[in-house]
Specification:
single chain, alpha+beta, 6 helices, 4 strands, globular
């Protein structure tokens, strides 16, 4: 019986298939790999594979859940969500809108057990949608998840 490859193994296979990134290979082999080792089941991430590197971004729901688990204050969690949204927006604008040939691909990662999970390519617009930051929407999501957190704790 074959085991499902780890998320890192899936990302590595994608880079081999696409022959990207052409430079900054340690983005994946060092930084992303270390980041993935700290994920938990249920985490939702966006991985950006760029012609010149990679980056991992955490979606707002995951940021809120992690922040609540660590006892972070609202403004710190909010700042992290805004930063994640800005990263995806920057990648979208720089590598999709401002180039004749797109130089980035976006992937949705849902973390499962034992560093395994699903990795699926998504459109740049879907990546923007999954990481979007709107103060009112974020506040509502935070309130909803913190109420659920209180019920569990």
């Amino acid at each position: 019986m074959t085991r499902t490859p780890t998320i890192y193994q899936q990302l590595k296979a994608i880079t081999i298939q696409t022959k990207w990134p052409e430079i900054f290979l340690t983005d994946l082999t060092t930084h992303d790999r270390k980041f993935l080792q700290q994920t938990q089941e249920g985490d939702l991430l966006i991985w950006t594979l760029r012609q010149d590197g990679t980056s991992l971004t955490i979606c707002p729901e995951t940021l809120i859940r992690q922040g609540l688990q660590r006892g972070e204050i609202y403004s710190d969690i909010q700042r992290s969500a805004k930063s994640s949204a800005d990263m995806i927006q920057c990648n979208h604008d720089e590598y999709i809108l401002n180039r004749k040939e797109p130089a980035a691909r976006f992937y949705r990662i849902e973390v499962g057990q034992q560093q395994r999970g699903t990795v699926e390519e998504i459109t740049p617009d879907k990546a923007l949608f999954l990481t979007r930051y709107d103060r009112g929407d974020f506040h509502d999501l935070y309130r909803q998840l913190s109420e659920q957190w209180m019920e569990v704790a």
